[in-house]
Amino acid sequence: MIAKSKKGSPVQRAAAVLIFAVLAGVGLTDAYPAPPPLNFGTPTNLGPTINTSSHEAYAFISADGLSLWFSRMPNSVNERPEILVSTRATKDDPWGTPVSLGLWGDPASTYESIRVVPGYTTGDGLEVYFSDIRPGGYGSFDVWMMKRETVESGWGPPVNLGPVVNSSYQEASPTISSDGLELYFSGYASTNNRPGGYGGADLWVTSRATRNGPWGWPVNLGPTVNSASADIFPIISANDLSLFFSSQRPGGYGQWDMYMINRGSLSEQWGQPVNLGPLINSPGSEDAVWMSVEGSTLFFNSDRPGGYGGQDIWQAPILAAPTCGDSEHPYPAVDLNKDCRVDLADLAVLLAHWLECTAPECD
Q1: What's the whole-model pTM score?
Q2: Which of 68, 97, 198, 213 is positioned for an S-S bond with 226, CB 3.0–4.6 A?
Q3: pLDDT tens digits, residue range 107-160?
Q4: Nearest-CA neighbor of 46 among 81, 89, 90, 97?
């Protein structure tokens, strides 16, 4: 059949490749079971200098690894959360006593000391994105941003991203790509979730052509990424090729588990979500994962045993990336996107490049 298809149309050739890839893929997928997306060391609690009997969460670290920002949520619903920053002289030193940067919901003061924080600011540190309920919004949580002229300047006033991005529903937990052209966000897993999704809360993305251009209509990341359960708190990596999030989908290890999706380049689609595994996830709740810029440490929230009360901030070392083969052939030959799976994502790459070839030797 394949021999005949070489003399046929591109559609016939594509059909032959489809059958071959599916048949080959079944065998190779069995031969190369997918490992976790990352290898981790044992998680450790950041200790009593950072964590208390209140809830500490949403940690993110500066590009130089010397400043740690996080939120502290009081146990009383009548008190407002605050944002704190802890610093250290070198990466080998312990974190110092945290200093409050102000109450949550007052970003003009809260973010004053923040410099370049991938995921929350653009790569140049001149724009910061956050969600809040404040006057001038469109209902519930909205996405807002602030700008500054230089990284040494103060932030300008908060600006709502407008009715194209925001709605009368919930747009929360924004994370911005380093080039400032992609903005991911989610709703909350409660009420008022944005319609058009697949579950209790979904991950969405809006994009723009230039830094000064308008944001486009948000696009749902689709059923490959989102589930019928709640999917929230997206955090994009410093290289924009990995997206972490938390989910209540079946098949996890606890109430909330952390997952990640990858893509080979900025122009490619996101791959299948992969659970970060039982070393990181526990029978409790884990969310708001953050990977250091150089990719050596994972920070996350957890209410697992061994903490100081409520949710604490934990960290885990990231070890050498796993492969699914051996040192000579680390990936199957037809694992075109190097995710240790042979599936429709690889088939899409194969077909795209197959049909691109018009030279005689392709016939």
Answers
A1: 0.77
A2: 198
A3: 767 776 666 777 889 999 899 999 888 889 998 889 999 999 998 888 889 999
A4: 97
